[in-house]
Amino acid sequence: MKKSVYLISAFLLATCSAVIVGCGEDEPEKPAQTRSDTTPPPDVPIAHSDANVSIDRDFPPAPVAE
Predict the structure, then answer these.
(1) How much is the pTM?
(2) Residue 54: strand, helix, or coil
């Protein structure tokens, strides 16, 4: 009886160890992609700056709510 308990516990320990080691493998890291061009694709709309913008020193614009 005692021998079968040791065998079952050894089998469970070996199985758990194999699962932990098998699942612990990391995927190889992919190199970061760097883009050298700074022009956006043609289908991306670009907002044009407003030419009539003036900021009053006495009444600054309100901060953007987050």
Answers:
(1) 0.35
(2) coil
